[in-house]
Write a structure and sequence with these properties.
- The chain has one domain.
- The termini are far apart.
- It has 227 residues and is mainly β.
- The chain is globular.
- The protein has helices at residues 13-21, 23-29, 82-89, 189-197, and strands spanning 3-6, 9-12, 34-35, 38-41, 55-63, 69-76, 93-95, 97-99, 102-104, 106-115, 142-143, 146-149, 163-171, 177-184, 201-203, 205-207, 210-212, 214-222.
Length: 227
């Protein structure tokens, strides 16, 4: 690294550049093998009381180089569900993104679907979900995957189960859900959640202008029959 003396202070040119564009952007802009951030563990999301509102809350979680939550930004607000989603996600744990094995700051989209009670798909579910707005650009060269098409999960028949299913979704560079990992399950609801996400449409992650594999998180909150 080139060093210079200015005003009696030794300054590294690379350090100055990192400060100028932000530590997170510097890490994601590095060349080398990139591994996306991911959700490691998750608590349940409480369905707000006294409401039968359904829909999707979309959040953008900013993580530091150690996987710590720095900020949770609302991309799609669905009152009165948003506050419940935010409160829960801030308690979750995450693994940091890495470049050549070294942790870097990154952003991970988290989409929380408050699913209607529709056992066996015998009840109308109001069609598809509203697609959230795109993740805003920042100084880094990595853009997480985006949702192009989404739908509710079908509530399994012959059950009164309720609870939260949290999924880590790996999206390949063609925009398909290549792998869906259950982070938090709620039998028999997990299979319904996985099946739903496998039907969703995605736009792949982008790095340095090219499509690459990436990850996002999807949670389904299944409520009991409140009608």
């Amino acid at each position: 690294m080139r060093m210079s003396w200015r005003g009696g202070i030794l300054v590294g040119a690379a350090v100055v550049a990192a400060i100028g564009i932000g530590a997170g952007a510097w890490g994601q802009g590095e060349g080398g093998r990139f591994s996306a951030a991911d959700v490691a563990s998750a608590t349940g999301v409480a369905y707000p009381v006294n409401t039968t509102t359904t829909g999707m809350v979309s959040l953008l979680v900013s993580l530091d180089a150690g996987g710590g939550v720095q900020k949770v930004q609302v991309l799609q607000d669905t009152p009165p569900l948003t506050a419940a989603a935010q409160a829960s996600v801030q308690k979750w744990t995450f693994t940091a993104a890495t470049v050549n094995g070294k942790g870097v700051a990154a952003r991970l989209p988290v989409h929380v679907v408050f699913n209607p009670y529709n056992p066996g798909a015998t009840s109308a579910v109001g069609g598809g979900l509203t697609v959230p707005p795109p993740v805003p650009a920042n100084e880094g060269d990595f853009m997480p995957p985006q949702i192009r098409l989404a739908s509710y999960a079908f509530y399994p028949p012959n059950t009164t189960a309720q609870g939260t299913v949290v999924l880590s979704v790996s999206v390949d560079k063609s925009g398909h859900a290549a792998k869906v990992r259950v982070v938090r399950g709620a039998a028999p609801l997990s299979d319904a959640a996985v099946e739903a996400v496998q039907q969703w449409g995605f736009q792949p992650a982008m790095r340095a202008g090219e499509a690459v594999a990436g990850k996002l998180c999807v949670a389904f909150v299944f409520q009991r029959n409140l009608s």
